[in-house]
């Protein structure tokens, strides 16, 4: 009777839950809680190297959508409160505090645009794609759809080539 040949070692599948605590900042954090996704977003403000897990990416996207929605609703409320309508032309003038809400939205956008791009690039690295593919967002309509589909894909272990450990 022959003994079966030893099989190749099982490859590391990064989509598995973290078991050894919080990974270093240069490594992707799989199954990251909301708090970790939020803090890693800000700590890696303009870091385009490395990878970001699906949970890091999508939990931040949810936070960003919620904050942007709240700021948008606040802007709308401030525009409607104190607004006037010209009875002769029917034109509407927003309330005096509209600029405050619009300013807050602008500050939020300016504060998050660079880290959002870097997070998207790191997410592409996690699926073993070049970060330059993020420029597909510049193609009207279809580009953002392509990035959306890519961001949903599971991690590819070959994406570890983008990791740059500090030690």
UniProtKB/TrEMBL annotation:
Cleaved signal peptide residues: none
A Pfam family assignment: DUF805
Keywords: Membrane, Transmembrane, Transmembrane helix
InterPro entries, per database record: DUF805 (IPR008523)
Keyword Cell wall biogenesis/degradation: no
Transmembrane segments: 60-80, 100-121, 133-153
GO cellular component terms given for this protein: plasma membrane
Record has Membrane as a keyword: yes
PANTHER family membership: INNER MEMBRANE PROTEIN YHAH-RELATED, INNER MEMBRANE PROTEIN-RELATED-RELATED
Protein name (record): Uncharacterized membrane protein YhaH (DUF805 family)
Source organism of this protein record: Microterricola gilva
């Amino acid at each position: 009777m022959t003994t079966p040949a030893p099989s190749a070692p099982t490859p590391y599948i990064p989509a598995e839950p973290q078991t050894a605590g919080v990974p270093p900042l240069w490594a992707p954090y799989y199954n990251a809680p909301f708090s970790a996704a939020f803090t890693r977003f800000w700590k890696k403000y303009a870091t385009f190297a490395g990878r970001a897990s699906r949970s890091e990416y999508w939990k931040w996207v949810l936070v960003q959508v919620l904050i942007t929605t709240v700021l948008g609703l606040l802007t709308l409320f401030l525009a409607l409160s104190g607004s006037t309508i010209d009875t002769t032309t029917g034109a509407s003038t927003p309330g005096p505090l509209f600029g405050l809400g619009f300013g807050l939205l602008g500050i939020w956008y300016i504060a998050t645009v660079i880290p959002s791009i870097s997070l998207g690039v790191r997410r592409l690295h996690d699926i073993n794609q070049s970060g330059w593919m993020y420029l597909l967002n510049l193609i009207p309509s279809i580009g953002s759809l392509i990035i959306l589909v890519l961001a949903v894909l599971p991690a590819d272990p070959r994406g570890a080539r983008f990791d740059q450990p500090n030690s």
